[in-house]
Amino acid sequence: MNAARNAPQRSDLVLLPLGGASEIGMNCYLYGTGDPQAREWLMVDLGVKFGDESEPGIDVVLPDLSFIENERQSLAGIVLTHAHEDHLGALPWLWRKLGVPVYCTPFAAALLSVKLQEFGLAEEVPLRVRPVGAVFSAGPFDLEFVAVTHSIPEPTALLIRTAQGTVVHSGDWKIDRMPAITPDMNEARLRAIGDQGIDAFICDSTNVLKEGHSPSESDVAATLDRIIANAPRRVAVTTFASHVGRITSAVASARRAGRDIVVAGRAMRNVIEAARATGYLRDAGDFLDEEAFGYLPPERVMLLCTGSQGEPRAAIARIAEDNHPHVALEEGDIVIFSSKTIPGNEKAVSAVLNNLARLGIDAITSDDALVHTSGHPRRGELRELYEWLSPRAVVPVHGEPRHLRAQAVFARSCGIAEAVIADNGSIIRLAPAPTTIIDEAPAGRLHVDGRLIVPAEDGPARHRRRLSFSGIAVVTIVIDRKDNLATDPQVTIEGLPAFDGNGQEMAGMLAEVAGDVFDSIPRPRRRDAANLSETLRIAVRRAANDVWGKKPVCRVVIHRL
């Protein structure tokens, strides 16, 4: 930890974001309480972020927990606010580094249990399942799961009380007074908490740039009802697999239209099983496996499928490429994208839409009709919750820097006395007042690369990115006992043009350069392998740049006889 800027010597309550304070996703927050030299800690959420084009070969990004790994004896537990991947998806990857109890609601436990089974952790991780509304403790932290509304069952805000202060961690939320599934947002309890007084509100910033209120799930349900009732042939609905409320609405519409329901996609099936095991979708009727799809009349079937974000191996992407083993759509069928395209996924989603168009299949997105609504608060909802809670301070999280700044400015305009913008690694004193950044701690990212967890800062993805821009040239030379070339240099290229502008073979030209440079080096200096390798590397890169305009990665392999 760096030297404190303004570190208090008395007991305090602090927040340390390890993820979620500079991006949407990878939520991971530490709350610390007690003496600054010996704080006890509580982790809230442990989520993933998914890799993007800047991270080639990386599907999953994790928060770096090195700070709390060194303090694990002081970690009271991990509390999960809800079951979305960006809030619990990192737990199976990283739990062994911490080894503490995990507190969550029944639905989150059902989904998490599937993941733990896949990782061989089902018998190791101590799950402490608590219902929405539960009051419980972890170390010096008195906690309460408070019901909010979001796009998944059992989302909660977390009330955190310590001897040093009281805060509310919002989790993901919106105000929806007509949600598709219960429980409703517990406005009365949130108002009561505000009446008792809280020091700080740590709040979701995702939709702060939008005015007004998010549409209700009931509005989306009405749109789905109309589209499905009027569809002349097959209907496919793709949405976030975890969106049980949206699944509930789509299923109800299909049943009213007299349609059987087929499910395609492992993630969707897992969520449906978890939902039914915890009391949801029990009136939805039977779901058919994808093998049944081709045997059903076109006007009597609705397909629920994964792939709303254009994932290449998901059901709707394979259907759009016309290579799914059991499901095929035809001209006149309809696909409803009941989702928002997450930033970074635009190209992948566009590719699926174009493939559907080539098959003559109509696609309906949120640009065409109200087939999706966000699970995050707009400014009108933020203002309402500020009024209910009346916090002394707001700390914006769950957003990019522009979202965090916008919420800080908005909170002050709503009469909140203090609003602090922090980054991952900032240690923010929440109580006693004033709320301010007092220190910093290590924070960063890790990549899941295949089966391994590797550094993000200077790991394989960084080197793959370099290779994707300019390719690689590998120079191989064989030196005899007299320090002469035993044979002509060989150059192997990947990702470079095969020929230069004059039609000369690129590898051959670079090999000639390597040979000429080698011959120009005095024989005694040829015995210095490091110097020889660097001289050849620089010369070959320069030669490639002269004819191509790019400098490839270059490696030199030296063999001595």
Describe this structure in words.
Residues 1-8 have low confidence and may be disordered. This protein has an 8-stranded mixed β-sheet with strand order 8-7-6-3-2-1-22-23. The protein has a 7-stranded mixed β-sheet with strand order 9-10-11-12-13-20-21. It has a 6-stranded parallel β-sheet with strand order 16-15-17-14-18-19, with helices on both faces. The two termini are 52 Å apart. It is globular and about 90 Å long. It has 561 residues and is of the alpha/beta class. The chain has 15 helices and 28 strands. Helix 6 (217-230) packs parallel to helix 7 (244-256) and helix 14 crosses helix 15 (529-548).
Give the strand content: 15-25%
CA gyration radius, whole angstroms: 28 Å
Question: How much helical structure, as a percent, in the residues?
Answer: 25-40%
Number of helices: 15
* Secondary structure category: alpha/beta
Mean pLDDT: 95
Uncertain parts? 1-8
Number of strands: 28
Read across the widest sheet, the strand sequence of neighbours is 8-7-6-3-2-1-22-23
Largest sheet: 8 strands, mixed
Calculate the terminal CA-CA distance, rounded to whole Å: 52 Å
What is the 3D form? globular
Quickly describe the structure.
The protein is an alpha/beta fold. It is 30% helix and 25% strand.
